[in-house]
Design goal:
Chain lengths: ~475, ~475, ~475
């Protein structure tokens, strides 16, 4: 018996004023379609067919080899969309088929699995997934008959009494695949919109004397979709809050969650504190006892334990234990900060390894460099890694002391314990423990500013 | 027939602990009085008299020539305030007069126009603008008589039953101007406060056998005012949310609106995303498909399409298409970034034009400069535009390559394709394709740090 | 008569996944235990015994000499915890004893004092402090008898009817000290958990024919505690909002409070505006008419009047009147900015005094320096205060003009009105009004980049 999924992803978000298919709109940086597919996969359903329509190419590129697709060329309703998957359905028609909306991102694997169990147990031809809402306005209402379902009534067709029903249609259904195929062939366009409605399958099944049921999901968010950007913001808020609460349950501390956005794949250790305005994206992993924020962005970063990051942005960087960085720091891809590194303000590090306990206190750029441990960077140091044609590396040995406003012209190597004098441009290798100085004589011109300054700045200052 | 407006703006926000007139307190950077005047103007009412009182001069300066003003020297009530405009009213007494509170910023043009239509249709002497509130506590309640109004009862004078009335007085009224003049002359100070109350005009009109009506506004926010800073924060929140929703309807995307404040005059194109902590002020205009934020401030800026701005502040700047800037960038007035410019971290640009595809990657100041296209700025470059007396300009030709920590002493001109060596101070013009070098010889002092360093940093390191 | 306090602080926050005692978890940067002690002290109660348990050492270190402590070695319930203080109680048994939970931070001095008055007036043996909650779920319910109390029923033992009671136990009690000692000796472990419950004292007192009362606090927040990190976040939100409202009542202006966190000891003058994302910590004091934020962190800072701070972080700094700083500035401990100083972008100041009207516009580090008034710092200036061994000071006289990318090698002194040329490294003192220049000759190499550049950058540019 093969259980499989058809996901409807052909819709256009007209009211979003956006030229992309609605299921491709993102909730917490993942397209809604991605949320739906992930829920299926978590429920053990890997045979999935996505019905595309508006800007099908964009959906196909996003899916890659992850799912099959079929194209619905004309937008003739949800029933018509499922019809496009007829070939897919017929390949394995001895099991059940789940039909899902590609733009209802909070359908979860537990609901999918429990609804299937119920569907099989009840021997239903079709099982509608439903939920009870405090405010059902706008949704199709479920009319019950015994323990089964009598009908789904759309908001606009509902009587006053029917509108009070709080159980609503999620738009997700389990069908016996054979029954689905037969029901699809019975759908008609004889309605005001001239469309084939998947909801009509319930009535058709009952007419045939088959059993039709409704599985009430415990999680009412399964029905949530988005017609407007306001709805989409709401989905993001629901997802955001859910992720934050999951981290709180894991022992992560928040004083104020304003502006905190954490992606689904982020891991954070216990007793770490996240301060406001912090955005964690991609496969970021943070250890224990850290303080991250305020106003950090970490994307695909690995952060150790006891790390303090204050107002920094880091992308594809590795930060080991007990590092302190910030405020106002930019760690670009390929940065690796080893244990106990200290980075102060207005520092950029890129494609470089920085050794243990090295300090880069202020206004410095370290790029394409291999830096030893216990190095001290003076303020204004620049690793001159680009000569206009190619990028070269700097190698800086353990215990080096780089003077302020030093230029290190790559490729260049500073031996262990080497010094550079402030303001020097270092164009050749410096041996261990040597000092490199590039400097002209200092000349003083007496009384240079006497006339121009005195009257302007010190009007009362007589000679 | 002349329809005109009297706006009451004499009040002092005692409970705000602020030495400015209450209507001058701002909601989203615009004084509440400005909101009220704009609503009148949108409703086609341009003949406006503002009644000033507390710190009248401040209101007069703000208004400039936009409205007439009259001074209420003593604070003797709302009726007394309108009396001060008697001269203004008598100039054109054949139409209707709208009386508005200068500190109720959400009165809107639609309510003003519809209330006037109702007022004329009903041939009312006076029409009170009202709204239904879920929680009417603190507001004057509207007692109805048939389709008209019987009385306005203040909270403190209301019976238990009257307090349950949810229709409240907004403090805005349409009067037949002639009726208003007659009613004002009938007001008395015979009450506990010894003040002339404008609300008493309703009772007076009814005594005279005139018709008095109430127009119920659809937008309940028209009644909102502020007595405390908490109220004022609430007004800001209402205004903020309204602006955000308006942009969402236009196709602008928000993942989380925390800390996002967008002024009334800001325009944003569809499919642009605004990230948290972003403040957009003044006449800022943003194109399509941009990503702005987090934590940007843009004030009076014009931003093209496909622009990415991350944690930058920009004031009176023009940014063309496909520019990327940030994080930690400051664009000061007179900045013009052309198509495809890239600005990295810790960069300031001021009063300069930067040509297409030029890159300013890090720790650089470009001021008072004209920069060509495809220029590459090394890290730490400074355009030395100020000699302590005057500011001069730098001119940097197409395709120049500026070495790191270069000083360009303005006025100076770099020809097309010119190079400067890292660490050079460039005091004279550099011809096309030439290299400018200012550098002393590099000297190495062997074993300079051997003794002082070795014991400290490498205790286990024997020679 | 001696009134005294026993605070229970032995609990472990298991569900917080944190290895510290629950009362040591912070709300707005102060451990909950600190909030409780402060409330006692404000109520004039200085004789306090804290019962420790889990990680007692951590509590003892935090308390120092502030309170006595006793250790509860086994966790055998709240009654058992109070028993550990028997010695403390017996020292002065002629008065009353307040028992408080160390993890209910919003117990306030007014409730404590009023409950004591009530307790004495009613001649109660024990008085439970209670509060009415809209949602009492999870709390012990108060069953009344006449004006007194009949019992406290835990949620899990309550009948349907009892669960509807909205008056709940705060966990705080006033006892006559003698009665408490007698009641404690009567407690037993005969319950499911095998623990001694302090709540059982109420029943015991009634059995003895003593009077037991309940004092209903006006502030329902007195009952709030935290079992989960979600609860703890809620406590932080309550505390945050309360502090913000207190400042609003004092005339401080907020446009949007997102991400604003203000500590309990912070003082802010009237007509100052705090923008989003601003965190004020420690003993920070801000004057009137300032604009602070967005995204500032100020910790233990003293800020004058009419100061504008935009996206800066300052720690242990003093900022006088009319200073403007930001965006992107870091003021480290020992910074003192005098009247009218202007600090621009990407500037760090540390352990330095900066004189009146001095300007540090961009990309500069001023450390360990004494700077006069009306000094102008060029972009990229570095005070080279560290030679790898010791830190030295720079002294910069009034009206100096420091050229861009200048290094001032400390110790060094620039006399009044001294100039330094851009790019110079200044290694010795500069007399008044003198100019210091360290610079090599500028050489131009013609046609240096002609070949390598032209084909790459200007493919269509024929010679």
């Amino acid at each position: 018996m093969m259980n499989q999924v058809v996901i409807l992803a052909g819709g256009h978000g007209n009211r979003m004023k956006v030229a992309i298919p609605k299921p491709m709109l993102s909730v917490l940086d993942v397209p809604m379609l991605g949320w739906v597919i992930r829920a299926c996969e978590s429920a053990g359903l890997s045979r999935i067919c996505v019905v595309t329509g508006y800007k099908a190419k964009m959906v196909e590129i996003y899916l890659g080899n992850r799912c099959r697709t079929v194209l619905q060329e004309e937008q003739l309703g949800t029933g018509h969309a499922v019809m496009q998957a007829e070939g897919f359905l017929k390949e394995f028609d001895d099991g059940n088929t789940l039909v899902l909306c590609g733009d209802a991102p909070f359908m979860d694997s537990e609901t999918i699995s429990n609804a299937l169990k119920f569907h099989i147990q009840q021997e239903n031809a079709v099982t509608v997934v439903t939920a009870d809402l405090d405010n059902p306005t706008g949704y199709g209402r479920i009319l019950r008959r015994g323990s089964g379902i009598a009908a789904i009534v759309e908001e606009k067709d509902a009587t006053e009494a029917q509108r009070k029903v709080r159980e609503v249609n999620s738009g997700a259904y389990w069908f016996q695949t054979k029954a689905l195929l037969e029901l699809l062939s019975g759908l008609s366009q004889s309605n005001a919109q001239g469309e084939y409605y998947l909801t009509d399958t319930v009535g058709l099944a009952l007419e045939k004397g088959w059993t039709a049921g409704a599985y009430r999901a415990e999680n009412p968010d399964v029905v949530l979709g988005a017609n407007t950007r306001k709805d989409l913001l709401h989905l993001n808020e629901v997802a955001r809050r859910r992720v934050l609460e999951w981290h709180m349950d894991n022992g992560v501390s928040f004083v104020c969650t304003d502006g905190v956005i954490i992606g689904n794949k982020v891991e954070i250790g216990a007793e770490t504190t996240i301060l406001p305005g912090t955005i964690l994206r991609g496969k970021t992993k943070i250890g224990n006892h850290c303080t991250i924020g305020p106003n950090c962005i970490l994307e695909n970063c690995t952060i150790g334990d006891h790390v303090t990051l204050n107002s920094i942005q880091a992308y594809d960087a590795v930060v080991e234990d007990a590092v302190k960085a910030g405020p106002f720091v930019h760690l670009r891809p390929g940065t690796h900060l080893k244990n106990g590194v200290k980075i102060g303000d207005f520092v950029e590090v890129k494609n470089s390894t920085v050794g243990e306990q090295t300090a880069i206190a202020h206004l410095t750029y370290v790029g394409d460099s291999d830096v030893g441990k216990k190095v001290n960077f003076g303020c204004g140091t620049v690793t001159v890694n680009y000569d206009g044609m190619v990028k070269n590396r700097c190698e800086i040995g353990d215990g080096c002391f780089i003077g302020c406003n030093t230029n290190l012209i790559a490729p260049v190597k500073l031996g262990k314990g080497a010094y550079t004098a402030a303001g020097s441009t270092v164009t050749k290798d410096v041996p261990e423990y040597a000092l490199a100085v590039e400097r002209a004589d200092l000349k003083l011109k007496e009384d240079y500013s006497k006339k121009k300054l005195r009257n302007r700045l010190f009007p009362g200052d007589d000679e």
